[in-house]
Design goal:
Guanylate Kinase phosphate binding domain, Rossmann fold, 7 helices, alpha/beta, globular, 2 domains, four-stranded mixed sheet
Length: 193
């Protein structure tokens, strides 16, 4: 397979996964984000193949049957499907780029098995800062926050041990988290430049 080219960044909602991925891509010219497939329609300004691979529900299901959707989930509020699109990953790997993927545990497992991915679990900031970050993104009741907190604790306890590295992303220290990921990728032999 040659040099390692796939990196998985995972973690609870509000942990800063997107910010870490964006930081790595901004600092390392040979890195790109994986582009996910979805059945939701494009929003104004979004472009097919850049923001998402926009597929009809029928096409998404055809791609699943063909083995091109490696893992997926359905957003319960909208019914829209989102999935890891194998043709996107394969094309990015073929171009020689290091591909950064934001995935759940099922996708991370697949990437480790099939692409020798190096995996990171982004640990959320300590309690008060994490609550503020999550509530700023999506206002919620105290009951909803308690449910989110319980889900996050379960993710950390049950899923985090699977990942190769754990990166703490404290409020105001995003650059430190990004630099920690980059340092590990260099140590692991990824061609980031």
């Amino acid at each position: 397979m040659g040099a390692k080219q796939v990196v998985v960044i995972a973690g609870p909602a509000g942990s800063g996964k997107d910010s870490v991925i964006n930081g790595v891509v901004a600092r390392c010219p040979n890195t790109v984000r994986m582009v996910t497939a979805t059945t939701r329609p494009p929003r104004p300004g979004e472009r097919n193949g850049v923001n998402y691979h926009f597929l009809t529900k029928e096409k998404f299901e055809e791609e699943m049957a063909a083995g091109n959707i490696l893992e997926y989930y359905v957003r319960s509020e909208t019914g829209h499907m989102y999935g890891t699109y194998k043709p996107d990953i394969e094309a990015r790997i073929a171009s020689g780029k290091v591909v950064l993927c934001q995935l759940q545990i099922v996708g991370a497992t697949y990437m480790k098995e099939h692409y020798d991915a190096t995996t990171f679990f982004i640990m959320p900031p300590h309690s008060e800062a994490f609550e503020q970050r999550v509530r700023e993104r999506a206002p919620m009741s105290d009951t909803e926050w308690a449910e989110r907190q319980a889900f996050t604790k379960r993710e950390i306890a049950e899923e985090a041990p699977f990942y190769d590295y754990h990166i703490q992303n404290e409020d105001g220290k995003l650059d430190e988290a990004v630099e920690a990921v980059i340092a590990i990728l260099k140590k692991e032999g990824f061609a980031l430049e």
